[in-house]
């Protein structure tokens, strides 16, 4: 089997099984584990997968910049955002971090809703600038241009002073083994802090982010109160999340 054929075989297996176990694959193909690990390393460098101890997991599609991600799964994100916005009750304090789905949540908050929104996303803050009754706290810090969010020590310090009712967690990756993860270390710290300061954590997950992994772990799936995803997602894909006691809502 040629190198290109072998690597395509790996990607096909990853898509089918949701993970690669290097030892098992080396036995199946009659190749050394070093060869398989080299393939996994090169595929990871190309962004095709994420290496983990003993093998690999599917990579998140959320590697594009903010503008490009607005074109990904627009119908799913719209439905998810509407469902999330309908959960917010008058007088609540909510965390709404960065991401294209969370921007849609901000746009769908009812105009007569009295709510306090704490965000590290300038686009979210701008979207709420004309909201008649929303108080908006924009967290300061260093601007991460790729995702258009603020990160850093100042951001974390402000979060530590808040106790939120809800946190709508913009998701890069969810995986039954890896948990909740993201592509940027500073964002992982920030999301971890918001999780710790929130009574409920709602993950807004477009289907292509389920069963994928990114480089920086935010925490275990058990940190989530609920997952909201698209109606068309197969039940067998959601079963591992339900088995952990997480409410899963398809919209």
UniProtKB/TrEMBL annotation:
It comes from Ktedonosporobacter rubrisoli. Residues 3-58 form the HTH deoR-type domain. This is Lactose phosphotransferase system repressor. It holds the Pfam family HTH_DeoR. Repressor of the lactose catabolism operon. Galactose-6-phosphate is the inducer. Coiled coil: none annotated. PANTHER family: GLYCEROL-3-PHOSPHATE REGULON REPRESSOR, HTH-TYPE TRANSCRIPTIONAL REGULATOR SRLR-RELATED. GO terms for molecular function: DNA binding; DNA-binding transcription factor activity. Keywords: DNA-binding, Repressor, Transcription, Transcription regulation. SUPFAM superfamilies: NagB/RpiA/CoA transferase-like, Winged helix' DNA-binding domain. Gene3D superfamilies: 3.40.50.1360, Winged helix-like DNA-binding domain superfamily/Winged helix DNA-binding domain (1.10.10.10).
């Amino acid at each position: 089997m040629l190198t290109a054929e072998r690597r395509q075989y790996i990607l096909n297996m990853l898509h089918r099984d949701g993970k690669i176990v290097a030892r098992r694959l080396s036995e199946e193909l009659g190749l050394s584990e070093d060869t398989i690990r080299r393939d996994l390393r090169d595929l990871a460098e190309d962004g095709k997968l994420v290496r983990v101890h003993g093998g690999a997991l599917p990579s998140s599609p959320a590697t594009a910049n903010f503008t490009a991600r607005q074109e990904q799964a627009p119908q799913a994100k719209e439905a998810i955002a509407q469902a999330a916005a309908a959960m917010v009750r008058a007088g609540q304090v909510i965390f709404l971090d960065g991401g294209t789905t969370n921007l849609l949540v901000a746009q769908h908050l009812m105009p007569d809703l009295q709510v306090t929104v704490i965000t590290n996303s300038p686009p979210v803050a701008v979207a709420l600038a004309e909201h008649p009754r929303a108080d908006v706290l924009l967290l300061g810090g260093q601007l991460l241009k790729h995702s258009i969010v603020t990160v850093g020590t100042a951001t974390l310090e402000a979060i530590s002073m808040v106790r939120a009712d809800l946190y709508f967690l913009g998701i890069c990756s969810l995986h039954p083994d890896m948990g909740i993860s993201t592509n940027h270390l500073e964002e992982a710290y920030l999301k971890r802090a918001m999780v710790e300061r929130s009574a409920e954590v709602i993950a807004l997950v477009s289907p292509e982010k389920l069963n994928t992994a990114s480089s920086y772990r935010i925490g275990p799936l058990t940190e989530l109160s609920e997952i909201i995803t698209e109606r068309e997602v197969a039940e067998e894909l959601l079963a591992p999340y339900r088995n952990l006691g997480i409410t899963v809502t398809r919209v």
